[in-house]
């Protein structure tokens, strides 16, 4: 009997995945739960286990191809396994289901080819998607394809422009396609000699979609303070080696900042929240997302229940998540459920940042580069190590007063460290 293995949904918001590596080839035997292939989605890289014991009969999706959730990946030859789906009744009653099944399956497959954004755009403008030529992976129709089709329709329907009164030729101008409702306006880039087109990875596509959605839908506000972290810097220099020997991880500014942010969120819960349209959702847990730069793009693994960890626990969790993020070994649960994000942009040498709030959160804090500078202390001037703390916050959820209070709480806790 044949068994069709399909692309699993690795996360609530995941709609597609890319086949990275086939771990088995046609003719190979595979045991139930044995890794069959490796896929990468917008959130994680994961191995897909075989749902049955059998032999790989046919691979349907080659390595490097992106397909929607539910798309067939391969066919297993399984001894004694029942055919997928309901068993058709015998006799004449079986004829109707047998005839209807291909049509229904075809309709479902066709629907899965289109992302929610593509279907929404087509519905708003009454476009028959079967007439749109897809340029995405596997011929999938993208938002850009729909917009290009819409622009051609408008161009064909528009009256011819009146001739210019001057004989002087006008410079060529690229048409700017009007943005669809709920979508940002995009001017297609002009290709120049030497340019190279780089296909989007699932992670880069997800970053683009999430950041565009956040910038478009969240009214961002921004503020910052400076914190004196001289005592923390001295502690890191003094105890760093002993800390590494004891806990097996390096000691940096980040766990101090996370611990201060966690305590500040407990004091100002409006920042540990999410906008719900007709309500504000105050989160019951404190799950901190940490931004990690990887070769594949920015990843934001999550420290769950960060309020239950001490400084050493936070340092170990930060190190573990960052290492696995860079090695492509994050699990689905490692990247879901963040209620607030802390980004250590100072590790890249920045002095001030204006971060974009992750969708579903009310704020993101960046810790900037710690630098020594002259500071007024009492009636004198001293050289202190100062760090800027920058906060982007959702102005629907919190006002400037709550944002300023949150930053004051973070600052106070960092400056109160004694070591």
Structural class of the secondary structure composition?
A: alpha+beta
SS elements, strand count: 19
Taken together, the total number of domains comes to: 3
- What percent of residues are in strands? 15-25%
> Distance between the terminal alpha carbons, to the nearest Å?
67 Å
**How many strands, which pairing sense, and closed or not: the largest β-sheet?**
7 strands, mixed
Helix percent band: 25-40%
Number of helices: 8
Q: Spans of 5+ residues with little confidence (pLDDT < 50)?
A: 82-112, 166-184
Helix-strand string: EEEEEEEEHHHHEHHEEEEEEHEEEEH
Tell me the radius of gyration.
27 Å
Oligomeric state of the chains present here:
single chain
For this structure, what is the CATH class of the largest domain?
A: Alpha Beta
CATH superfamily of the largest domain: Chloramphenicol acetyltransferase-like domain
User: What would CATH call the architecture of the largest domain?
Assistant: 2-Layer Sandwich
CATH topology of the largest domain, which one?
A: Chloramphenicol Acetyltransferase
Average pLDDT rating: 83
Q: What general form does the structure show?
A: globular
């Amino acid at each position: 009997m044949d068994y069709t293995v399909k692309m699993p949904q690795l996360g609530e918001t995941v709609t597609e995945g890319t086949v990275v590596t086939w771990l088995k080839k046609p003719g190979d035997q595979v045991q139930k739960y044995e890794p069959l292939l490796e896929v990468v989605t917008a959130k994680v890289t994961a191995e897909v286990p075989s749902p049955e014991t059998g032999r790989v009969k046919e691979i349907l999706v080659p390595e490097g191809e992106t397909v929607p959730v539910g798309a067939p990946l391969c066919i297993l030859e399984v001894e004694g396994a029942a055919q997928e789906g309901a068993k058709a009744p015998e006799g004449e009653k079986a004829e109707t289901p047998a005839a209807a099944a291909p049509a229904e399956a075809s309709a479902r497959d066709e629907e899965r080819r289109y992302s929610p954004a593509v279907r929404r755009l087509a519905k708003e403008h009454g476009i028959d998607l079967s007439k749109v030529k897809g340029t995405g992976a596997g011929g999938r129709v993208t938002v850009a394809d729909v917009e290009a089709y819409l622009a051609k329709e408008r161009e064909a329907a528009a009256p011819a422009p009146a001739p210019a009164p001057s004989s002087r030729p006008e410079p060529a101008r690229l048409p700017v396609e009007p943005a669809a409702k709920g979508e940002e306006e995009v001017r297609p880039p002009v290709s120049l000699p030497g340019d190279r087109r780089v296909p989007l990875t699932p992670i880069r596509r997800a970053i683009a979609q999430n950041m565009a959605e956040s910038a478009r839908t969240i009214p961002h506000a921004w503020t910052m303070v400076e914190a004196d972290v001289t005592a923390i810097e001295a502690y890191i220099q003094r105890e760093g080696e002993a800390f590494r020997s004891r806990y097996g991880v390096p000691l940096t500014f980040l766990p101090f900042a996370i611990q201060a942010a966690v305590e500040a969120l407990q004091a100002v819960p409006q920042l540990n929240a999410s906008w719900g349209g007709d309500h504000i959702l105050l989160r019951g847990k404190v799950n901190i997302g940490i931004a990690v730069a990887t070769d594949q793009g920015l990843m934001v693994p999550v420290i769950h229940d960060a309020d239950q960890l001490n400084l050493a626990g936070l340092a170990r969790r930060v190190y573990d998540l960052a290492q696995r993020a860079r090695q492509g070994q994050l699990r689905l649960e490692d990247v879901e459920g963040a209620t607030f994000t802390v980004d250590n942009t100072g590790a890249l040498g920045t002095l001030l940042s204006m971060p974009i709030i992750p969708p579903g959160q009310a704020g993101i804090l960046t810790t900037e580069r710690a630098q020594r500078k002259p500071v007024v202390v009492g009636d004198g001037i001293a050289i202190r190590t100062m760090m800027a703390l920058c906060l982007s916050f959702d102005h629907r959820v919190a006002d400037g007063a709550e944002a300023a209070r949150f930053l004051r709480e973070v600052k106070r806790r960092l400056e109160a460290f004694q070591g």
